[in-house]
Design goal:
Number of strands of chain B: 15
Mean pLDDT of chain A: 80
Helix content of chain B: 55-70%
Radius of gyration of chain B: 41 Å
CATH architecture of chain A: Orthogonal Bundle
Distance between the termini of chain A: 51 Å
Number of helices of chain B: 18
Number of domains of chain B: 3
Largest interface: A-B, 16 and 21 residues
Shape of chain B: rod-shaped
Subcellular location (chain A): Cell membrane
CATH class of the largest domain in chain B: Mainly Alpha
Largest sheet of chain A: none
CATH topology of chain A: Farnesyl Diphosphate Synthase
CATH architecture of the largest domain in chain B: Up-down Bundle
GO molecular function (chain A): transferase activity, transferring alkyl or aryl (other than methyl) groups
Low-confidence stretches of chain B: 506-510
Structural class of chain B: alpha+beta
Mean pLDDT of chain B: 82
Membrane topology (chain A): Multi-pass membrane protein
Keywords (chain A): Membrane, Transferase, Transmembrane, Transmembrane helix
Distance between the termini of chain B: 83 Å
Oligomer: heterodimer
Number of strands of chain A: 0
Strand content of chain B: 15-25%
Shape of chain A: globular
Main location (chain A): membrane
Chain lengths: 313, 551
């Protein structure tokens, strides 16, 4: 962008300079907050909490500390994942990596406290909640760490195993988001729980593969096999459309079979609609990072639709 | 109560994750295990409080033993690793420590079929709350005693560090002892029935204090950033790796410890020497006794060429009582050998100079009153001898200096070629026969001077009417043998004494430095020299030279 110094003949009007200065000041002031929110996985924790509240509402469960546990677990596990992948993420997410590297010691302590609090709070929900809260930690170790030194050389981290990586993430997070609110109140498993659980597994799988389109080059270089690396971006989009379509069919069948009601089906379909919008934008926009965030946020419209009317009651 | 237990779990998990980051620092793994056991115990207590029926309450007590039994082993391993006693943390030791806890877990999980852990379980109402009351069985007291025993054993290394000179170690060990003491005291009070805890063992709650103490040790006192683990190993390693030999004797002069260097010096083995009186192992060293205490003295083992400077220091306990002594043996063989060689050099130099000067003075006095060509030639000859003597002394000093430095390698063929060229030019009447080895060898550069002196001596002192010097080179394993044979009159027996007795015997008067250069230079360069001489067959000098590389 040319500066005023480069265009001495053109004098900017005072008002526009003042406005620009105000915007710059605001941007400068809010940048640290924005960085903390986006780069430290706080926004993922907030989304996880919203999703757990959404599940509680859809399944008509009383509100418990389960959403807080889900949020703390998300913050801790994603925070640790970002710390573990500092070297490899430097290519795909340089700004985030720089932020995490700068605050890595404090970041680890915060993540450890968050996980400690999550496990402790989950104990109040009974032994199954307690076990569920340990699951993401155990899976994170399996997923991201070469933690067993005696494994033969050439053994891959789960993160590097094609499809299993995204499937593991999807199943574990669906267990945390869907099952924690249920086990916390000791509610029985019902067919509706199964439908919501499958919805979250499939939607989270799609969510996991969307940033992989952005990370395709970096993942390919470090040998991580993801859908975009293996089948290319175009086929990845077709597969993701197929999964969201399959999810929509599942919701339709569940509605017809009277397992979920119309409100529940529409709310979840709304999420799928937004998710399809994000898939559509893949490879059509320069800002792939924003798309990854947008994909994570695709359940928020459903949360707004379900939870906001309750606030007025 | 439940919220306190929740806090205990939060502190335990957080502490465990912080310790996880410090792996593989000593103590990190056992600390993770300890905190995991504590969290499991606390969690099962919460589940037990929430359980409604007797059987479910009993179930959570029974499975809580998994965490309870891990804690003492983890504590002991943590303490041993942290304080550097890693020789007691091998797999076999861990298995040994785990026998009683493993039996306990088994008995806990099968408690419905025996009465070893608990003899009776009933629910009683206390302040309107249904609580489980179990009567301890025999094994309960065994595991309780065992837990206290391991707790005590783990505390001992830490108690030692409380008085450490290093500030962080004092802070760390105090924090860790506080962490041990809190659950210990709580458990004792619970077992005595002094705590109003409605039948619930509050020991894991006290572990919240432990957790905070451990976190304090982690953060405030850099538990894994600076720890005393290497101290013991460093001391042992220093003792083993020190250049001097060292013997530790008790008050009865029995050898209680010795390093490898001392074993070599005393020509013994640790199995043979340890536990036995020094007098039996080395009467010579033992006999030094009071002489050593008076200062320093030299010990020469029988049949060995080494010499040791012996010094002694007393070992005292905290009450300043002598509990033994340490004898150190400093190898001074090279120093003494160099000193002796310098003395020889000095004596021969003085003697030869004095002889030459006396001849010069006598001839000069004669020439002052007479005109004599022969006297003038004699005078000139002795002046040249003094000059040559100076050159030889300089060569010897050069060799001594080079013995302290890293030296270059030279090609043996080129050394011999150059020696032959210069000697044949100086002594054209001598016939040289040379049978070189086809393979060339790299040898120590000191052999340049050594070979030159051997070949020059063979030519210079050869008074045969048909003087011949033959040189032969043969490989002998890792060595190369250079044999120089002449048909001269042989070497004087006085000069041969230097070779026969090595560097220990002073040169007899009248000797030059040529032979000394050969013997000392060969010795410094790691070779050996053998001289056979007779008046009829001449002299054969055999040099055995280490090959540094061949090609």
């Amino acid at each position: 962008m040319p500066t005023d110094a480069q265009n001495p003949g053109k004098q900017p009007d005072i008002e526009s300079v003042r406005n620009r200065s105000l915007i710059t000041k605001l941007a400068t002031l809010t940048r640290p907050v924005r960085n903390i929110f986006l780069y430290s996985s706080v926004y993922l924790a907030v989304i996880a909490m919203a999703e757990a509240v959404l599940v509680s509402e859809l399944l008509a469960l009383p509100l418990t500390p389960a959403p807080i546990v889900a949020g703390l677990l998300t913050f801790a596990v994603y925070g640790n994942d970002r710390l573990a992948d500092l070297e490899t993420d430097a290519k795909t997410s340089p700004a985030r990596t720089a932020f995490v590297r700068r605050y890595q010691n404090g970041f680890y302590v915060l993540a450890a406290i968050a996980y400690g609090l999550a496990v402790a709070l989950s104990a109040l929900g009974g032994p199954i909640s307690f076990g569920l809260s340990l699951l993401p930690g155990v899976c994170w170790i399996l997923y991201a760490c070469d933690w067993i030194p005696t494994l033969p050389s050439g053994t891959q981290r789960l993160k590097e195993v094609f499809l299993l990586n995204s499937t593991l993430v999807a199943v574990v997070w669906a267990l945390v988001i869907v099952c924690l609110p249920i086990t916390y109140v000791g509610a029985p498993a019902s067919p509706a729980v199964g439908v919501v659980f499958l919805f979250f597994v499939l939607a989270t799988f799609v969510n996991t593969e969307i940033p992989n389109v952005r990370d395709k080059e970096g993942d390919s270089e470090i040998g991580v096999r993801t859908l975009p690396v293996v089948v290319g971006v175009r086929w990845t989009k077709y597969i993701l459309y197929g999964i969201t379509g399959l999810t929509a069919v599942l919701l339709g069948v569940a509605f017809v079979a009277n397992i979920i009601n119309l409100r529940e089906a529409l709310v979840l379909l709304l999420s799928l609609l937004f998710l399809n919008g994000v898939i559509f934008c893949l490879n059509r926009t320069e800002n792939d990072s924003a798309l990854a965030v947008a994909a994570e946020c695709t359940r928020l419209p459903a949360f707004v639709v379900v939870v906001f009317p309750l606030l007025g009651q | 109560m439940k919220m306190v237990l929740v806090a205990t779990i939060a502190v335990g998990v957080t502490g465990g994750l912080l310790a996880w980051k410090e792996r593989p620092e000593p103590g990190a793994d056992p600390l993770i295990l300890l905190l995991a056991g504590q969290c499991w115990w606390s969690a099962t207590l919460i589940f037990r409080i929430d359980a409604a029926t007797l059987s479910s309450k009993v179930f959570w007590v029974d499975v809580s033993w998994i965490g309870v039994a891990i804690i003492p082993i983890a504590w002991l391993l943590f303490s041993l690793e942290y304080a550097g006693y890693t020789e007691y943390t091998a797999r076999k030791h861990i298995l040994l420590y785990s026998i009683v806890p493993a039996i306990t877990v088994f008995l806990g999980l099968t408690s419905h079929s025996h009465q070893l852990l608990y003899t009776n379980s009933v629910i009683i109402q206390e302040h309107g709350i249904a609580t489980l009351n179990r009567t301890p069985g025999v094994w309960f007291w065994i595991i309780a005693g065992y837990t206290y025993l391991l707790g005590l054993l783990g505390a001992l290394p830490l108690l030692k560090l409380v008085t450490s000179q290093v500030d962080p170690f004092r802070g760390q060990s105090l924090a860790l002892l506080l962490g041990l003491l809190a659950p210990w005291v709580t458990n004792v009070l619970f077992l005595r029935g002094s705590l109003p805890s409605a039948g619930v063992d509050p020991t894991p709650i006290a572990f919240a204090v432990s957790g905070l103490a451990y976190l304090g040790a982690l953060t405030r006192f850099q538990l894994f950033g600076a720890n005393p683990t290497p101290i013991r190993h460093a001391r042992n390693s220093l003792f083993q790796q020190m250049q001097q030999g060292a013997l530790v004797l008790d008050t009865h002069d029995h050898i209680v410890d010795m390093n490898d260097q001392a074993t070599t010096a005393l020509q013994t083995t640790p199995n043979e020497a340890l536990g036995r009186p020094l007098e039996q192992i080395s009467p010579d060293l033992s006999a030094l006794g009071s002489a050593t205490q008076a200062g320093q003295t030299i010990y020469r083992p029988q049949g060995a060429s080494q010499s040791y400077d012996v010094s002694e220091s007393l070992v005292t306990d905290i009450h300043d009582r002598t509990i033994g002594r340490v004898i150190t043996l400093h190898d001074v063989s090279n120093l003494l050998r160099d000193q002796q060689r310098l003395e020889v050099l000095h004596r021969v130099f003085r003697h030869n100079i004095r002889t030459n000067v006396q001849v010069i003075l006598g001839n000069a006095a004669y020439l002052a009153t007479h005109n004599s060509e022969s006297k003038a030639a004699t005078l000139q000859e002795h002046a040249v001898e003094i000059n040559e003597l100076g050159e030889k002394v300089r060569s010897v000093i050069d060799i001594f200096e080079q013995s302290r430095e890293e030296r270059d390698t030279l090609s043996l063929n080129s050394i011999l070629d150059e020696c032959l060229d210069s000697t044949s030019e100086a002594y054209p009447e001598v016939t040289f026969e040379y049978a070189p080895e086809q393979t060339d060898f790299a040898v120590d550069c000191l052999f340049d001077v050594v070979c030159l002196n051997i070949i020059q001596n063979a030519a210079q002192h050869n008074t045969s009417p048909d003087p011949v010097v033959s040189i032969k080179v043969e490989r002998d394993g890792e060595y190369v043998q250079v044999t120089v044979r002449d048909n001269g009159p042989g070497i004087d027996s006085n000069e041969l004494a230097l070779v026969e007795h090595g560097s220990e015997t002073p040169l007899k008067h009248g000797s030059g430095f040529g032979l000394a250069l050969v013997v000392w230079g060969t010795d410094i360069a790691g070779g050996t020299v053998d001289i056979e001489s007779s008046e009829t067959t001449g002299t054969t000098v055999s040099l055995r030279i280490p090959i540094l590389s061949s090609g």
